[in-house]
TrEMBL record:
PANTHER family: NADH OXIDOREDUCTASE HCR, PROTEIN RFBI
A GO MF term: 2 iron, 2 sulfur cluster binding
Key words, A-Z: 2Fe-2S, Iron, Iron-sulfur, Metal-binding
Needed cofactors: FAD
Domain (FAD-binding FR-type): residue spans on this chain: 10-111
Annotated organism of origin: Amycolatopsis acidiphila
Protein name (database record): Oxidoreductase
PROSITE patterns: FAD_FR (PS51384)
Amino acid sequence: MARTAVSGRLSWQVARLAEVRDETPSARTLVLDVPGWPGHLAGQHADVRLTAEDGYTAQRSYSLAAPADGERIELTVQRVEDGEVSSYLTDVFSLGDPVEVRGPVGGWFVWRPSDPAPVLLIAGGSGIVPLMAMVRARRVAGVRTPFRLLYSVRSPKELYYADELRAAALSGVEVSYVYTREAPAGWGREPGRIGVADVNTGGWPASFEPACFVCGPTGFVEDVSDMLLALGHDPRRVKTERFGPTG
């Protein structure tokens, strides 16, 4: 997931690619070693900067896909058509190569394992990335906080973290899917955009006062937020993170 990078007082650090995992035909997870990384919370993101030989720079912001792990971070990058940064990171960037990173950035769209409230995660496409960091943080912390994840995606082949989400469903995270373009054979719901019925069925009742995290394209986030409010959820407990073209 990429957003326009946010300026701040954090210093740029040189990271090196330590591991790569393919998630979909057009997305891969980059595991980076970042000496001196200060740690982060699930839901935060990092800025990435590329510098060409002629001094031209380009930077984007990518959600951190996993909880803090010493000096190692994970970013899941979706290749964007004509994207100068994402194309390099998904097609050219090789093991051992350096890249500049800065972070962590953001302190509002975060989940802490010490929060006992039920959690509702609603993702659209690559918006699953920071929400997956929360799912993983729950597992690493060994807490039993009630989690529900509603994941809207175009087709099964575009699911991020498919195997891990199946495992999460066996460890107390309730996962449901909405396919908008193509559904698996025998799927009980016709492909289509997420609706109030999906949010109502896949989410928690408003009376449970869950912490709601919604992430995805701007239109998706606005629609889902309206659905949550219509279902009676407290707007103060609905946190959103959106992304779109970087130009």
